[in-house]
Design a protein that fits this description.
About 35% of the residues lie in helices and about 25% in strands. By secondary structure, the chain is of the alpha/beta class. The strands form 3 sheets. Strands 2, 3, 4, 5, 10, 14, 15 and 16 form an 8-stranded mixed sheet that branches. Helix 4 packs across helix 5 and helix 7 packs parallel to helix 9. The longest helix has 18 residues.
């Protein structure tokens, strides 16, 4: 029996109503965000250090509080440089980063009038409320939650592992043409099963680096649209996004024949998004070139782009490590070592044109020229 029968049935009905096929982008949106059923909207156990907790993966703020302390120094500089007094966090997860940023900003004297969390998941919003009330009770009243972006706002935006969770288009190269990969139903053997199905398309990667037949890759249409929408609404301020990914020439490298789409459950990865739908995370690496271009085209300036390790070092992580205990140092090391999160994760920053400044996070090791 399907693990989430209501979600499977809903997706199957949509496939039938759509003539027997939906694009993977739509399938991923339903699997992750269908209200009450999708992975992110149907529960709150995604984030944690160990499988025994019932969690599926760990993010940097859960790994070490020093992550938020370092990021807070960049946020504090950006608030002062842009003359704004509000932080906007997209997809706040367990609430760990919000706690770290609020506490460190308060210690730095960079008082914010309001901390706005934009999150679609009601269960995650409740988990965030509880954590904030417990860990930073004196600052929790500054926090508000919304589920849609206003037409205009100002402040400093942060997004940790947000872009990778946005639905992607899948395209496949058969040696002669590009095909959009979607999902159909196999109803021959009793209960319908989700299966891959390809259709000709005009969509294609932004570069042709000599793809080999059988290549499957992703197009980050929704992430680019998100940046465009954000840029149009941000009247004054800055934005920082931290995620795993590559610039365009690495993202679409001919040797990356299987793309980057991956599933996570119980701290294990698999490459089959068509099974256990709603019970595991679906994610794709970020094309940071596409993100940068979307922001620029909508009027933002790129402040910088670098590895997570370099960004955190620029923001004072080394000084924090000197005063941390042995366990704290060991956990924080995972943030910066190349074989853990230090190199795979990148940071990109944007600023509205009238408020441009030299961001400390990109003061050394900026890789904007590689985008």
């Amino acid at each position: 029996m399907p693990a989430v029968p209501a979600l499977d049935a809903l997706i199957a009905d949509e496939i039938r109503r759509s003539g027997g096929w939906i694009g993977f982008e739509r399938f991923m949106a339903l699997a992750l965000y269908q209200p009450g059923l999708g992975y992110y909207s149907g529960g709150d156990r995604q984030f944690g250090a160990l499988p025994s907790s019932g969690s599926d993966f760990i993010t940097a703020p859960e790994l070490s509080p020093l992550y938020g302390r370092a990021l807070a120094r960049q946020v504090a500089q950006a608030l002062a440089a842009t003359g704004t007094r509000e932080v906007w966090e997209f997809g706040a997860g367990s609430g760990a980063l919000a706690c770290q940023l609020l506490q460190t900003l308060d210690e730095l004297g960079a008082t914010v009038d309001r901390y706005t969390i934009v999150d679609l998941s009601g269960t995650l919003r409740e988990r965030q409320r509880q954590r904030l009330a417990k860990e930073v009770p004196q600052l929790a009243d500054k926090v508000r939650w919304i589920d849609t972006l206003p037409e205009a706002f100002e402040g400093v935006v942060v997004g940790n592992e947000v872009l990778d969770a946005m639905p992607v288009v899948l395209v496949a190269w058969d040696g002669a043409q590009w095909l959009e990969r979607g999902v159909a139903l196999d109803e021959a053997a009793g209960a319908p099963q989700f299966v891959w199905a390809d259709r000709p398309t005009e969509l294609r990667p932004p570069v042709d680096l000599g793809f080999v037949p059988g290549t499957v890759t992703e197009l980050p249409r929704q992430a680019s649209a998100f940046l465009s929408t954000l840029a149009a609404a941000l009247t004054r301020g800055a934005a920082f996004f931290i995620d795993y990914g590559f610039p365009e020439h690495e993202f679409y490298h001919p040797q990356r024949t299987g793309g980057t789409l991956m599933c996570h459950r119980g701290h294990k990865a698999d490459a089959d998004p068509l099974h256990d739908v709603g019970l595991k995370d679906l994610t794709a690496h970020v094309d940071f070139t596409a993100v940068a271009l979307a922001g620029q085209d909508a009027g933002l300036e790129v402040l910088g782009y670098t590895s997570q390790a370099r960004f955190l070092f620029n923001c004072g992580l080394l000084a924090d490590l000197e005063t941390a205990d042995l366990r704290g140092r060991a956990m924080a090391q995972k943030l910066v070592t190349e074989h853990e999160m230090g190199e795979l994760f990148k940071v990109i920053g944007f600023v509205t044109e009238a408020a441009s400044f030299e961001a400390i996070g990109f003061s050394a090791g900026d890789r904007s020229h590689t985008l």
